[in-house]
């Protein structure tokens, strides 16, 4: 019986993240436009864009290999599975017991690996530039992410997000310096991973400054739709992750009733909206940094993560 | 070494050329002028062709005078200027494309504007030939381990003008940038030949849309110089008013666009609002947002009503109040300063050698502005300062624009206060029955626009050359980007904001 209810919740959550992801992207764009005193496109515009892309024909470069055609689906699948592993409104997920935080990082890492390959596959110079920059960012973001996981795992005694969330909800957490460090580091990694300002500009038309966009320049039609949806899912995943680990209040615990589940969904949507608003506000107030400043930025995230881990070895109460 | 006035004494002065002297020079005198150029004693203002001659406009650095020197093709091959003075190179390559004039020892014989797709070769020569198949264009090499090429354009991801940029990079660092332009060639000079003055004035105003006032102004002044026309005073002041409005609109647009290229959209949003206000005021006062066809040879096309003057005063007031806060935002945003300070440094020596005008030159220490150095009415009776900086980076170019906005706002107030309240707006422009030539320079928002015109006895344009300030700025962009990273190119490019259309003719 428990398995069936967990399966239902897992299924509901997978559908929820998929339907909410474009809405979150639309919401962030809308808030940014409003902050610039523009009217901005409707927040459902990303859905329309996806539909439009799905209906359009796919233009493939002559030099594109089978890899180029397969990769959009691979990226979408891995990102979706990764997003399904994060407890959004309920902690009792079926997948939780088979995959943990490290699995999420690995899934996203594979998606990135494939995207970088796709960038180079066609052989245009922009794809190559994008892949090389993306991989540079990845080599710095992933260790920082691992350090954050270590901090959380040392505290909660588990790398499983459901356990971490339960631990965070318990009274034994208290105020901890290491958690604050991990939060700051995670936000920095999230900005870099999602190609947001100041690391990358998702709205740019300047091909020479692109990172993520440069790799997907050659994609069109349904392939592009898959990649765009995966990018939206990834943004949602990171905001959900921050919400689940650092603001776990409102999560439906195992065995909660239907009413509690619905309330948990409402809280989750509120968390997403807050995260999206803060992201838009932050992006409006900073300029993009030079490509070679990115190592400094992510280096700081790595050091914060490392410090968080080390503090826990000094004292369990920090 | 003879000064330019000595040169005039030795050459054959053309009487029909007005405002500045034109002198037909011998081969040896031409050589002397070239060596003066290469030694920095004079600055090249322009170089253009005729069916059987090459003209070169020079600015004397000591005396401040301008002359046009002419070398005739009938007397043996004309020595190339760019062999010792590189700023002339692209002008000479264009000369070869348009007229088929072969200069002796031209260092780079590749075509420039002609991509082999016009269907004609040497369209302005006496006998244009049908063109053959387009040939491939060899780019300059850069050799070394780990170097790779990045071709960018002519079609870009955003809606901008077409131009090709060939980067050779080592990882992210640019080793060499080579531009290839000419994609926006419209054949302005061919269309000018035989056009009536009215038609030609409209055409001149369409050479580069963002500088339409400056071009129409320069063309009108060249025609008026040729025909010795006195322009009514109110028309002169209205022209200056339009020129300052154009400068204001473009500088507002540029300041925002530079910040937008560093992904700082906030400033772009604010300056776009100001730019839009300027354009709407222009539309309300002069009937066209960009003030196209408002300046005509002999005067201006329409008058400014008292309500219009009120609108412009209101605009200057609003912009004057809103702008300081934006300047503060620019100056206090550390992440933005981190991008602009020290990026794309243009060496002052190069700026001086190339006679680079506008904000690009003035940000690299070249203290030159036509409104003061070769003053024309009504600027000779206006008070304004010309900002000059010496850093030469993107930040300096932004600051020159910021200070020029402040000066333009003050100038607009002065012009509205000092302008004669009524009077005629246009002097008659008609054929004089004999050929006449005129040269004029006007300070557009980008820098000095040069217009040279030869009118036939029937009053139609026989030959007209319009030289955009970008001719001397594009090559410097190649120099400024060297050693910077590829991702900083859009920022440098935007801070130069050279014209493609004005350059490609």
UniProtKB/TrEMBL annotation, chain A:
Alphabetically ordered keywords of this record: Lyase, Membrane, Transmembrane, Transmembrane helix
Bilayer-crossing regions: 12-29, 73-95, 101-123, 135-155, 167-191, 235-252, 258-282, 294-314
Domain of life according to the entry: Bacteria
A GO cellular component annotation in the UniProt record: plasma membrane
Topology of this chain in the membrane: Multi-pass membrane protein
Localisation: Membrane
GO molecular-function terms, A-Z: lyase activity
A Pfam family that the UniProt record links to this protein: NADHdh
Protein name, UniProt field: Formate hydrogenlyase subunit 4
Originating species: Bosea psychrotolerans
Automatic annotation (TrEMBL), chain B:
Domain NADH:ubiquinone oxidoreductase 30kDa subunit: 61-129
Record domain NADH-quinone oxidoreductase subunit D: where: 274-426
SUPFAM superfamilies hit by this protein: HydB/Nqo4-like, Nqo5-like
Keywords: NAD, Oxidoreductase
Coiled coil: none
Origin superkingdom: Bacteria
GO molecular function: NAD binding; NADH dehydrogenase (ubiquinone) activity; oxidoreductase activity, acting on NAD(P)H; quinone binding
PANTHER family: FORMATE HYDROGENLYASE SUBUNIT 5-RELATED, HYDROGENASE-4 COMPONENT G
Protein name, as recorded: Ni,Fe-hydrogenase III large subunit
